[in-house]
Write a structure and sequence with these properties.
By secondary structure, this protein is α+β, with helices and mostly antiparallel strands. It has one domain. The protein is about 55% helix and about 20% strand. It has 2 helices and 3 strands. The protein has a 3-stranded antiparallel beta sheet with strand order 1-2-3, with helices on one face. Strand 2 and strand 3 form a beta hairpin. Helix 1 packs antiparallel against helix 2. The longest helix has about 45 residues. The chain starts with 9 loop residues before the first helix and ends with a strand.
Length: about 100
């Protein structure tokens, strides 16, 4: 019986080769979704800061609310000459912008 090839264990071997790749792919997907959600949260906060500035709330009150939402986050405001302004919210390596008018 020289022509017969035993396939016992071939499925296990294929699984051993494919499993680390599948786990890595799943982890990359989870990380991507997590970073996307984080950026959307920062964008939502930037829009909230724009609204607060348009209501003329104080920067200290805005900063306090921002740090309640995401501890360690910061924001900056860039004023343009036409009354427009841009708010940038930063946390770790992520950032988001929103624009408003006064």
């Amino acid at each position: 019986m020289r022509g017969q090839v035993s396939e016992n264990g071939s499925a296990t071997a294929e699984l051993v080769v494919a499993l680390p790749f599948l786990i890595a792919l799943a982890l990359i997907g989870v990380r991507f979704v997590g970073s996307t959600i984080h950026e959307e949260r920062l964008r939502y906060l930037a829009e909230g800061i724009v609204q607060a500035l348009m209501r003329e709330e104080s920067s200290s009150a805005i900063n306090r609310e921002l740090n309640k939402s995401i501890p360690g986050a910061s924001f900056s405001i860039v004023e343009q000459s036409d009354g427009a302004f841009t708010v940038t919210v930063r946390h770790r390596a992520a950032s988001a912008d929103a624009q408003g008018f006064r």
